[in-house]
Amino acid sequence: xxxxxxxxxxxxxxxxxxxxxxxxxxxxxxxxxxxxxxxxxxxxxxxxxxxxxxxxxxxxxxxxxxxxxxxxxxxxxxxxxxxxxxxxxxxxxxxxxxxxxxxxxxxxxxxxxxxxxxxxxxxxxxxxxxxxxxxxxxxxxxxxxxxxxxxx
Length: 152
Fold this sequence. Notes:
By secondary structure, the chain is of the alpha+beta class. It contains five helices and seven strands; from the N terminus they run H-E-E-H-E-E-H-E-H-E-E-H. It has helices spanning 12-18, 38-44, 68-74, 103-113, 133-151, and strands at residues 21-23, 28-33, 53-57, 62-67, 82-92, 119-122, 127-132. Helix 1 packs across helix 5 (133-151). The protein is globular.
């Protein structure tokens, strides 16, 4: 992989001005599973067909963020799962290196000022937020307005 990234000395305003806000199609769910489901879940991950999901192992829970259609195909294996959502996924297109400080703080601050709660996840190059379907349109307005303002 050879992807050009914006570095830690790049002002947050410049990073936001260069990003394209991508709202992924479909709805997503956040799923919490018991640790004893790990082997089965890791086998089932091969059946996920969407191009975006995240899997996190913590000491007390397995967490998935995935397309609700993928979850519909897997959920019968996990009747005790805790499920939240539906959410929309917002991806910030700009690739950033790990020296960038404050990008998510700026984004979450904008949304907090608008009274919008969110979850955040990071990929290797890009940040993403997930927002309830109920608040997604307002979140899109807030973020696009700020991006456009910074582009001047």
